[in-house]
């Protein structure tokens, strides 16, 4: 796939993801305004995080990274009938596993909740268990959505899979505003909304697959050669590609033991820190995996390295200023976007502390999204899994260390958890790069000196500008005035960053040619 096509595909996914993220932000604003932080909202977030975590772990994480290289190889070397047989066998095996897991979790929901949120009291735990029975079937539907989306992406169809998350956000917004007031227990509306969204996200993939003649009936065949290869790649890949999610989930476990509201504060911070990750990091990671896999299948080592270089340049171009800008603007972001209804100024302050701690890790999270696929495209899952395990242990050590430091400094402890995630992300990204270099796969060479200087200087100019503008931000007045002011600050910062890059000699055309 030519770099210009990669760039266009990335922009398609980014545009769809931007729509989803904007609606996702609106969704979180609505949820926090309607239900507030703490209490029942903490219970729902745990019930939602469990299937969502497994979705990212199995479906969008390990499964996709194992499935796409094998599917790409089949597409390059085999007939359409053999590709359809692979799709049929994989879908049947995936469905059988997911249905079994769903039944187990629904039956043992209280035990699962106690495992993931040991600090909940009896009321929170019971509510979380009830909600989990509603939300967990989402895993089955969204995993099949990710499976179908992976097929489309392997054939260069990126728009519909990228659009699917929009339906989740619309479903939850509708439930919070329309359905919740009708129920005796309003938070239950969100549980139903999640399950319905899963069905809708899966359904919209089917027509395009049918048009591509890739829609095959499920067939349970664990002995199929392709299925066995995917399972062999997938099992270790569970750690290698989804360590970020494991670390965030560990934070939820720790946060459940802290003061009420900690889970919600961390959630609000995670959602904002994931904006640039979703817009660019996930988009590029999704686009390059089929391209990298195709280069390996064709023994095109030069194309492989060029694709990885292009992706890394775009990641740093966006990730570095995004990390700095979100750190600088964390307080006004939280206050402007979330303070309304049941979400107080205190909640915003607590969430901003977590966001500051997470901001630095945005670049690390984004680099993981492109370094990990470089291994999976080569069907090497051993290296990322070793790194993943190291990162999980690093997160545990950092959590204990930073919680202790925050306690000594009399700072809110959840901020230490967020900072631990940032540290673990750089451990993960750094080790991935170390082994990319050690194995001779890819490394930063002399040509990177100038881009590094350009990105660093432009980010510094942007940060100085933001710090100079912040004292003039309107802390009073209408909500719309603050929203407009926030948009204006972001626009000024982005403009300063872009103009500085142009002055230093950087040109947008460099993003289209590896």
Structural notes for this entry:
The chain has 514 residues and is mostly helical. The chain folds into two domains: 3-444, no CATH class; 456-514, no CATH class. The chain contains 19 helices and no strands. Helix 2 (39-77) runs antiparallel to helix 11 (225-255), helix 5 packs parallel to helix 9 (188-203) and helix 14 (345-359) runs parallel beside helix 17. The chain starts with a helix and ends in an 11-residue tail after the last helix. The relative contact order is 0.12.
Please specify the SSE layout and strand pairing.
Elements: H1 3-35, H2 39-77, H3 80-107, H4 109-116, H5 122-135, H6 137-154, H7 159-163, H8 165-179, H9 188-203, H10 206-211, H11 225-255, H12 262-297, H13 301-338, H14 345-359, H15 362-376, H16 382-408, H17 413-438, H18 449-469, H19 479-503
Helix pairs in contact: 1-8, 1-12, 1-13, 2-5, 2-6, 2-11, 2-12, 3-6, 4-5, 5-9, 6-9, 8-9, 11-15, 11-16, 11-17, 12-13, 12-14, 12-15, 13-14, 13-15, 13-18, 13-19, 14-17, 15-17, 16-17, 18-19
Properties at a glance:
19 helices, 0% strand, 2 domains, single chain
Radius of gyration: 22 Å
Largest sheet: none
> What is the N-to-C order of secondary-structure elements (H for helix, E for strand)?
HHHHHHHHHHHHHHHHHHH
Segments where pLDDT lies below 50 for 5+ residues?
Answer: none
The span between the termini is 11 Å
Report the count of strand segments.
0
């Amino acid at each position: 796939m030519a770099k210009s096509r990669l760039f266009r595909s990335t922009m398609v996914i980014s545009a769809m993801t931007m729509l989803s993220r904007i609606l996702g932000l609106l969704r979180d604003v609505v949820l926090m305004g309607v239900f507030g932080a703490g209490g029942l909202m903490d219970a729902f977030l745990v019930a939602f995080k469990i299937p969502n975590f497994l979705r990212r772990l199995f479906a969008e994480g390990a499964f996709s990274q194992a499935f796409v290289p094998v599917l790409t190889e089949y597409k390059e070397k085999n007939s359409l009938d053999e590709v359809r047989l692979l799709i049929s066998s994989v879908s049947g095996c995936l469905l059988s596993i997911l249905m079994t897991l769903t039944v187990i979790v629904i039956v043992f929901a209280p035990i699962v909740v106690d495992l993931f949120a040991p600090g909940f009291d009896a009321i929170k735990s019971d509510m979380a268990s009830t909600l989990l029975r509603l939300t967990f079937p989402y895993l089955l539907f969204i995993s099949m959505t990710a499976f179908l989306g992976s097929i489309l992406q392997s054939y260069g169809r990126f728009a519909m899979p990228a659009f699917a998350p929009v339906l989740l956000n619309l479903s939850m917004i509708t439930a919070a505003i329309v359905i919740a007031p009708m129920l005796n227990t309003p938070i239950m509306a969100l549980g139903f909304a999640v399950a319905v969204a899963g069905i809708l996200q899966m359904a919209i993939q089917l027509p395009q697959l049918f048009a591509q003649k890739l829609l095959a009936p499920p067939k349970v065949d664990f002995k199929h050669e392709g299925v066995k290869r995917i399972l062999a790649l997938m099992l270790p890949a569970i750690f290698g590609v989804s360590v970020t999610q494991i670390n965030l989930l560990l934070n939820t476990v720790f946060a459940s033991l802290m003061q009420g509201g900690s889970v919600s504060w961390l959630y609000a911070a995670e959602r904002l820190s994931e904006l640039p990750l979703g817009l660019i990091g996930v988009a590029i990671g999704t686009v390059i995996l089929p391209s990298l896999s195709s280069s390996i299948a064709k023994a095109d080592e030069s194309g492989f390295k060029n694709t990885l270089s292009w992706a890394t340049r775009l990641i740093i171009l966006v990730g570095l200023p995004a990390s700095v800008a979100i750190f600088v603007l964390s307080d006004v972001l939280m206050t402007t976007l979330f303070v309304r209804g049941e979400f107080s100024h205190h909640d915003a302050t607590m969430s901003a502390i977590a966001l500051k701690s997470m901001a630095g890790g945005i670049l690390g999270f984004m680099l993981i999204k492109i370094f990990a696929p470089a291994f999976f495209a080569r069907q090497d899952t051993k290296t990322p899994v070793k790194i993943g395990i190291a990162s999980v242990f690093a997160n545990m050590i950092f959590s204990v260390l930073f919680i202790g430091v925050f306690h000594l400094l009399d700072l809110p402890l959840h901020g230490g958890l967020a900072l631990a995630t940032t540290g673990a992300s750089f451990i993960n990204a750094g080790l991935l790069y170390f082994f990319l270099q050690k194995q001779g796969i890819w490394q930063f060479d002399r040509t990177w000196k100038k881009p590094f200087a350009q990105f660093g200087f432009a980010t510094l100019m942007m940060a100085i500008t933001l710090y100079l503008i912040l004292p003039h931000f309107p802390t009073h007045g209408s909500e719309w005035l603050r929203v407009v002011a926030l948009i204006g600050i972001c626009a000024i910062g982005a403009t300063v960053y872009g103009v500085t890059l142009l002055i230093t000699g950087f040109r947008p055309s460099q993003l289209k040619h590896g």
